[in-house]
Amino acid sequence: MNGPEHYREAERLVAESSTILRPHDEGPCEADRVLAAAQVHATLALTAATALIDETPRSDSFDTYRSWQKTAGAKPTVCPETEETPVVASYFKAAWGMTPLGQYTNLRAAQTHCEADATNNAEDPEGLSFEWFGDAHEPGDPCELLLTVDGKQESSDYTVTRVEVDAEYDPEADA
Q1: Of 102, 91, 92, 90, nearest to 160 (Cα)?
Q2: DSSP 172
Q3: Is the distance from CB of 113 to CB of 131 less than 8 angstroms?
Q4: Beta-bridge partners for 95
Q5: 16, 29, 52, 129: which sits with the fewest CB atoms below 10 Å from its CB?
Q6: What pLDDT does residue 103 have?
Q7: 48, 74, 76: which is closest to 62 by C-alpha?
Q8: Euclidean distance between the first and the last CA atom of the chain, given in angstroms as a whole number
């Protein structure tokens, strides 16, 4: 079963439990067992839905999104490949000198990677502190990690640069 199927089964079992007569003081009855099964299905549905919280619909996950939207009664969204207006995208590139460290969708993640790498490569990471210089929100304009070691600030060669991704090929850009 997938997440939406667990959700629908939980709804069905809750409805079924309300139709079962409850005997007085005879211990757990069938309705209690049905409600316990409904709780298990609801928990599995919640787990499946929670796994999608930070995801964005992609071609390989779009059927899952459509299924959840249908289950929740939400208006279906358009598949990403069929959207008419291109989305302008960018990412943040973390690097140490010419060595790439990673590409991230948010600035803080790229900075954290640089700081972790600087800490791991420091001779004495105790007393090491960080400060970022520059504006990484400007495309192509890197911000640099400055290290403070024992009260002395120094350059580090760690940078984070915002890189814009083109939605379409522009032949005039090559000219």
Answers
A1: 92
A2: G
A3: no
A4: 100, 159
A5: 129
A6: 92
A7: 76
A8: 54
